[in-house]
Protein: pyridoxal kinase
Organism: Sellimonas catena
Amino acid sequence: MKRVLLIHDLCSVGKAAMMNMIPVLSVMGMEVCPLPTMLLSTHTGGFGRPEMLPVPGTYLEESLKHFRREQIRFDCIFVGYLGNTEMAQTVSGLLEMDCRPLVILDPIMGDHGKYYSNFDETYKEALLPLLGKADLLLPNLTEAAFLSGIPYSECQSEEGLGKVVEKLRKMGMKDGVITGTKAREDEIGMAVLEGNNMKICKEPEIPYHSHGTGDLFDAVLCGALLGGVSLEASARKAHAFVADCLRAKAVEAGEERAGLPFERLLGKLV
C-alpha cells in the first residue's frame, strides 16, 4: 500500500482540503497520513469569517523528526494550503532531505486573476523556493500566472500560456498540470506538462461552481498517479470525477457553500 504524507489545512465544515482528499485517496487504496498546517471551523467561502488556528511550524519539524527516528517512509508528500509565509518557509526547509519521495505541490493562493483575501505578493514570494523542490506542480491558471510573474490578462491564449510554462520551467518547475485554462466559452481546459512537452486537454465545461473542486482534483490525480497511471490519464480521470460531482450537485441544488456530494460517487474510483 502506498503511503501519502498530506500537508494541508483541516476545516471542519464545508468539505474542502483534507476533508476531501483523505476519503478519496483512501478509497483509491492509499494510506493517508495527515499533517495539518491550519485548523479552520469552516472553509473560507460563504460561512462568514471562520475560526482559524495556525499549527506552529515546530509541529511539522518535530513530526518529521519523529518519522525519521521511527524510519517511517512515504511514497509521496503532497503540499497544499500552507496559510502563511512562515509555514511556507518551514515546508521548504523540510523538503531538503535525502532520498525524498515524490513531491506534489498545489500552490493554493488565488483564482480568477485575484489572490484569495488572506494572500498577497509576499506569500507568493515565500512559495517560489518550493518550485524546484516539487516533482509535480498543480496550479490553476491564476496561480501559474502569479508564480511566473506574467500578468494574468496575458495568459488566456495558448501563446500566453506557453510563455508562462517556459518561465516556470526556468524557475525550476519539472512536470505540472495547469487547470482552468479556457479555449471557448463552453469548454474548460488544462495544460499537462511533461518534460519539454505541453498538451492542452479540453473538456466540456459544467455550468456550476463549488468549493473544494481543486482538492478533489488533486486527490484523484495523486491517487491515480501513485497507482501507476500516466500523468495525462491521471489528470483526465481527476477532471472526469470532479465533473461528475458538479453534475450531482447541480441536480441536488443545495447550498454552494456546503460543498460537493462526492461521498456518493466514491465508488467510481474503486
Q: What stands out?
A: Residues 3-173+205-269 form a domain with the UDP-N-acetylmuramoyl-L-alanine:D-glutamate ligase fold (CATH 3.40.1190.20). The longest strand covers residues 31-42. The radius of gyration is 17 Å.
